[in-house]
């Protein structure tokens, strides 16, 4: 199955073994899948200032600027910067024309993810399946062509104002899409900086309204053929104040994993309620970036000023933690010093850490994840994590 590596993974010189370790890639038979998905294509953001955000992802997240579209290239409405790290691609959009619809989007939602776009081998087959299952098709299948070839695309509506653009770039060898020009970083990386801070996207979590989680699980099951991975309900992830429900769906090869959260009724406003209020509806809550050296990544990001959620000392001093996690690759003191959490399940363990929200609104944030066999999402850490989030909510006056 080496031939199923995506173009981005090959360019990033990742191999099958690394991807199995990094993101839990599994073998599966795409021929029987009515909606085969190869993997992620891009995470498309709308932000208040794409020019500065692109610099942020280069300097702080160590990403490479690879492509650009804007007024200088004939795109009058907005600027778009394409950044990559390993196989992960971000596209950052910011409105230029005063009447750009992107500015309206930003007014409603603040900085956030508008499009979780997916690479598929056959756009038309996916759209046929989506239509048959009653999905909302935002853009019918169409071609974009330039001197580098042709890309076939279509767009489906997902939760809130989020969409999934389906991309078949098998007949295209340009840098991103027609309309974009190659662009390289103007940012000069520090000499001691690691070559790359993360290699791939692991999962993207969606927050949806109370009572709608199962509808969206059903959407991904029925329309996109995703299967349910794990389930966390009720008391599993309740703290004294707030609760949420969460289910996880994944595509056939498990590259694309979508945990979906909804708020659960609790004594105080949950972090999901806070997100829904400040994002103005459902949206992408966090993106997990896969790294093979979370300690180096955290150190590099902290050195650039990224703020991570604090983990209480009690988390590391708890004798049950040591019993629960067993042997991990680094001493617990090293994890403690960086606030990195550990979780273990029957398949192995994972290390993870969460940033504070990256924008002005208490909405989207990042997770760094280093997997060692575990295909989970850190269920054993949810309580400690949510208590850390609640301390931040309280400081914002939103608990
Ligand atoms: Fe996560």
Output the keywords.
2 domains; 2,3-Dihydroxybiphenyl 1,2-Dioxygenase, domain 1; binds fe (ii) ion; 399 residues
Report on this structure.
The chain has 399 residues and is of the alpha+beta class. The chain has two domains: 31-182, 2,3-Dihydroxybiphenyl 1,2-Dioxygenase, domain 1 (Roll); 200-396, 2,3-Dihydroxybiphenyl 1,2-Dioxygenase, domain 1. Helices cover 26% and strands 31% of the residues. It has twelve helices and 17 strands. It has helices at residues 7-11, 16-23, 50-59, 101-109, 123-132, 213-222, 271-279, 294-303, 313-317, 319-325, 332-338, 382-396, and strands at residues 39-46, 64-69, 78-85, 88-95, 112-119, 137-146, 149-157, 163-168, 181-182, 200-207, 227-232, 243-250, 257-264, 283-290, 341-345, 348-354, 365-372. It has a nine-stranded mixed beta sheet. Strand 6 and strand 7 form a beta hairpin. The radius of gyration is 20 Å and the shape is globular. It starts with 6 loop residues before the first helix and ends with a helix. 49% of the residues are buried. The model has no long low-confidence stretch (mean pLDDT 92). The structure holds fe (ii) ion. Fe (ii) ion binds next to strand 10 and strand 14. Keywords: Dioxygenase, Iron, Metal-binding, Oxidoreductase, Repeat. Residues 39-169, 200-356 form the VOC domain. InterPro entries: 4OHPhenylPyrv_dOase, 4OHPhenylPyrv_dOase_C, 4OHPhenylPyrv_dOase_N, Glyas_Bleomycin-R_OHBP_Dase, Glyas_Fos-R_dOase_dom, VOC_core.
How would you summarize what this structure contains?
The chain is α+β, with helices and mostly antiparallel strands and 399 residues long. The mean pLDDT is 92. This is 4-hydroxyphenylpyruvate dioxygenase.
């Amino acid at each position: 199955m080496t031939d199923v590596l995506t173009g981005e993974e090959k360019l990033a010189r990742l191999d099958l073994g690394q991807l199995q370790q990094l993101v839990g890639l599994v073998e599966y038979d795409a021929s029987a899948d009515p909606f085969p998905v190869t993997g992620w294509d891009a995470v498309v953001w709308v932000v208040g200032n794409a020019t500065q955000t692109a610099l942020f992802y280069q300097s702080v997240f160590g990403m490479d600027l690879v492509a650009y579209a804007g007024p200088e290239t004939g795109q009058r409405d907005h600027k778009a910067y394409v950044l990559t790290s390993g196989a992960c691609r971000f596209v950052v959009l910011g409105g230029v024309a005063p009447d750009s619809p992107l500015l309206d989007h930003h007014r409603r939602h603040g900085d956030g993810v508008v499009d979780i776009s997916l690479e598929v081998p056959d756009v038309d087959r996916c759209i046929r399946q989506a239509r048959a299952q009653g999905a909302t098709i935002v853009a019918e299948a169409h071609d974009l062509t330039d001197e580098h070839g042709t890309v076939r695309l279509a767009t489906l509506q997902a939760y809130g104002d989020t969409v999934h653009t389906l991309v078949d770039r098998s007949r295209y060898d340009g840098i991103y899409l027609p309309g974009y020009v190659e662009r390289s970083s103007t940012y000069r990386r520090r000499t001691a900086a690691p070559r790359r801070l993360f290699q791939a996207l692991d999962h993207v979590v969606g927050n949806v309204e109370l009572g709608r989680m199962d509808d969206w699980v059903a959407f991904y099951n029925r329309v996109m053929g995703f299967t349910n991975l794990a389930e966390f309900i009720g008391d599993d992830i309740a703290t004294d104040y707030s609760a949420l429900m969460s289910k996880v769906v994944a595509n056939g090869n498990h590259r694309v994993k979508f945990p979906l959260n909804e708020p659960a009724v609790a004594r105080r406003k949950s972090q999901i309620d806070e997100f829904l209020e400040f994002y103005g509806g459902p949206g992408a809550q966090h993106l997990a970036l896969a790294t093979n050296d979370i300690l180096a990544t955290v150190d590099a990001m902290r050195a650039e000023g990224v703020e991570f959620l604090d983990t209480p000392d009690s988390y590391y001093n708890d004798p049950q933690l040591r019993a629960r996690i067993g042997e991990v690759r680094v001493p617990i003191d090293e994890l403690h010093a960086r606030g990195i959490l550990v979780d273990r399940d029957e398949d192995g363990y994972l290390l993870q850490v969460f940033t504070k929200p990256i924008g002005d609104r208490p909405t989207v944030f990042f997770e760094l994840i280093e997997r060692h066999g575990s295909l989970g999402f850190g269920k054993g850490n949810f309580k400690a994590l949510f208590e850390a989030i609640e301390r931040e909510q309280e400081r914002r006056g939103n608990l």
